[in-house]
């Protein structure tokens, strides 16, 4: 007689809620890569150009995306502990390093930062990107394995929403506690992002599902694998479903369709987020040439960041709830929402292309934040549905490489377009009063609207790809219904059942 299986906590019991809250805390500490409000002060104190500041920011972005497949494979095979511990070390070292360089400043009679110190800043930014992504990867993976399919979209969406709210949270704390003190802000980032990872190290651990919850069928069921699992000693739960990874993943058209569409949509979002300060500045200068205020300009820029961050958070929560609702209540595949997400991001670019007043730029920022946050939550959930849970984090890591392509291409295009419209103040048709930066485009919307036309075209392509993906997913569902496969559970013998018999 086999030994009694350990008692499995209920689906919404205290143990799972603790895991969910700890995962959310880790995610809240992981999204500070988008907190770049200290960049102007960093550049001013260290004599950095805008290009150098962008390269420092790029170091963080590369750290996030390029580490995703490696971290995903680690968490799939070894669990979340090592990622959370490394996240603590990398975030603490990264932000502390940036703070040390900032506090040291430039030596006397030196106007530019040395190459070695500039490289150190890029390396520190890279560490914060890898560390934050490690914490997020561990949190998402654990949540996905701890809650059943019927609420998986909602719970993973909630955790991912913490990543979107991170920038707003830390910016708000800094503004209230020590406004204008960049050194204290960097200290907050170093401690406030790293120590929650230690909390996660203690509490973030997958909890197996009850057998009744774990028994559900997807496509591509490997019956031999299911039978083998039923004979394995101590197998606590079985989540039968697709298990696509490796070569099979990379040769699947169902991987390349979301990869390309995600690249186009996330590239649009990254371009907008990385350059919203320049967009707000251009619109503000255009309507305030004779009464320019650096303080007011900064406030309008900060307002856009806060709007994007809050709507990013909201989108990540709402899309999870909506995805679970349309599947469980309406009988529609979650992929249907791909069309909705692409439409929201497309509308944000269309709206932005017609806004000429900085006071209403929040409308485009709100739409962009909503669509951008919804996008990542939805694609992560679909990654589980289409390719399976056993290698979810590894597969999601590969899918997460897509923003590197779209983000870099669109951001570079935006920068070149803006550079083409900038001109020295003395050569402009109306010389601006003192206070306006010496190289500043004075044409308002015309400074960057061509870049928005590019992203509008990209979003239309993404919308077409999303429609194709929904059609393919729906067709597979209908084929399975016709074959009578839904509701058919493999013949798995559980140890508890054996003991009772």
Q: Secondary-structure blueprint of this entry?
A:
Blueprint: H1 14-28, H2 39-46, H3 50-66, H4 68-78, H5 81-104, H6 115-146, H7 149-177, H8 182-203, H9 211-214, H10 223-231, H11 247-250, H12 253-287, H13 294-328, H14 337-352, H15 361-387, H16 392-399, H17 402-421, H18 449-483, H19 495-500
Structure description:
With 501 residues, the protein is mainly α. The chain folds into 2 domains: 13-204, MFS general substrate transporter like domains (Growth Hormone, Chain: A), CATH 1.20.1250.20; 221-501, MFS general substrate transporter like domains (Growth Hormone, Chain: A, Up-down Bundle). Helix content is 71%, strand content 0%. The chain is built from 19 helices and no strands. It has helices at 14-28, 39-46, 50-66, 68-78, 81-104, 115-146, 149-177, 182-203, 211-214, 223-231, 247-250, 253-287, 294-328, 337-352, 361-387, 392-399, 402-421, 449-483, 495-500. The protein is globular. It starts with 13 loop residues before the first helix and ends with a helix. The relative contact order is 0.14.
């Amino acid at each position: 007689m086999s030994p009694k299986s350990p008692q499995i906590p209920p689906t919404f019991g205290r143990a799972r809620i603790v895991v969910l809250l700890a995962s959310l805390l880790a995610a809240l500490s992981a999204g500070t890569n988008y907190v770049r409000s200290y960049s102007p002060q960093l550049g001013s104190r260290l004599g950095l150009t805008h290009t150098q500041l962008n390269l420092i920011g790029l170091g963080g972005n590369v750290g996030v995306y390029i580490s995703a497949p490696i971290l995903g494979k680690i968490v799939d095979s070894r669990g979340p502990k090592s990622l959370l511990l490394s996240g603590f070390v990398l975030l603490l070292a990264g932000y502390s390093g940036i703070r040390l360089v900032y506090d040291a400043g430039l030596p006397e009679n030196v106007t530019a930062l040395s190459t070695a110190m500039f490289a150190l800043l890029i390396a520190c930014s890279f560490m914060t990107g890898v560390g934050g992504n490690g914490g997020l990867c561990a949190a998402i993976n654990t949540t996905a394995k701890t809650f059943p399919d019927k609420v998986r979209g909602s719970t993973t969406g909630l955790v991912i929403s913490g990543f979107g709210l991170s920038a707003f949270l830390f910016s708000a704390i800094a503004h209230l506690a020590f406004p204008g003190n960049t050194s204290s802000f960097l200290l907050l980032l170093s401690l406030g992002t790293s120590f929650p990872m230690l909390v996660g190290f203690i509490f973030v651990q997958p909890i197996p599902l009850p057998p009744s919850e774990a028994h559900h069928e997807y496509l591509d069921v490997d019956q031999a694998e299911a039978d083998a699992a039923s004979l394995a000693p101590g197998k606590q739960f079985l989540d039968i479903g697709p298990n696509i990874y490796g070569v099979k993943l990379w040769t699947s058209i169902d991987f390349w369709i979301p990869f390309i569409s995600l690249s186009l949509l996330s590239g649009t979002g990254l371009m907008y987020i990385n350059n919203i300060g320049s967009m707000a500045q251009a619109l503000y200068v255009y309507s305030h040439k004779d009464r320019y205020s650096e303080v007011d300009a900064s406030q309008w820029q900060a307002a856009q960041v806060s709007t994007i961050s809050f709507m990013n958070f909201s989108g990540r929560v709402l899309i999870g709830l909506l995805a679970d609702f349309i599947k469980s209540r309406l009988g529609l595949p979650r992929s249907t929402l791909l069309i909705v997400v692409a439409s929201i991001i497309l509308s944000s670019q269309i709206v932005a292309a017609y806004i000429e007043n900085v006071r209403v730029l929040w409308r485009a920022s709100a739409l962009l934040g909503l669509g951008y946050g919804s996008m990542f939550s939805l694609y992560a959930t679909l990654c589980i549905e289409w390719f399976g849970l056993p290698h979810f984090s590894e597969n999601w890591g590969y899918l997460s490489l897509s923003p590197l392509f779209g983000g870099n291409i669109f951001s570079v295009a935006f920068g070149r377009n803006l550079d083409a419209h900038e001109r020295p103040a003395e050569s402009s048709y109306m010389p601006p009063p003192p206070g306006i930066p010496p190289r500043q485009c004075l044409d308002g919307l015309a400074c960057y609207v061509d870049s928005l036309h590019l992203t509008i075209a990209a979003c239309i392509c993404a919308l077409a790809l999303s429609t194709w993906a929904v059609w393919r997913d729906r067709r597979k569902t209908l084929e399975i219904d016709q074959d009578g496969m839904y509701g058919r559970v493999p013949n798995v013998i559980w140890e508890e059942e054996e003991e009772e018999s």
